[in-house]
Specification:
It is built from eleven helices and no strands.
Length: 230
Amino acid sequence: MILRLDIIRAFAGPERLCFSQDIRELVACASESTFEMVNGCPREVFVIIGGILEKSKEHTLGWLTWDEYQIAMLVAKHKLYSWDSKEKMYPSTDPRWLAVAESFRFACILRILRLLDDLRPAKSPEIQECVARILDATATIPSDCPLIELLILPLFMAGADSLARHSQYYILSRFKEIERRSEIRNPVPRDLLEKVWAARAAQPPDDDKNVSWTSFVSRLHKGSASSSPH
């Protein structure tokens, strides 16, 4: 659980990554089927994205050149595209585990694409292909299936680059289903997405550069820091 939260924090800002790749690999290898049951993300995908977030942190700190960083990201992207979710062992024989795996795989590919170019227009075919693959995968998991509670991150990542109103509505509806099932309300993913969608809708017609959800996370942290007592 702690490692998952570490990765989620690093999705918003790689410099926030705390644990080393060695620890992630050790936990992923030693956890057996409980890893996927708790995290949703297949351990192989978890290790790949953890490694690239560590590279991103190193690049942010100036320890890695852009060329070295870019090569690492392209290699990781290739690994994720090549990874075959059908060959993996899952916690149970429920075929919907495959959909969970696919949603995480393409969420991580999407994060790598954004690390490569955060301003790349959301309408880019490769970006929209990832969005479609995530939404298609999550659509196979009904609201009464416990696996739906594992899908917040993939749904959020797809939502950040969703352009169609019906896709945005679908994602918000799925968040509500997850909240009803888990009885835990977390407004942050929905609030961030609504900010992204509003900012994108307000762009001039000739401006199609991406509106990054991470910029709103940064503002949120700055606002919290400025309002903290000294």
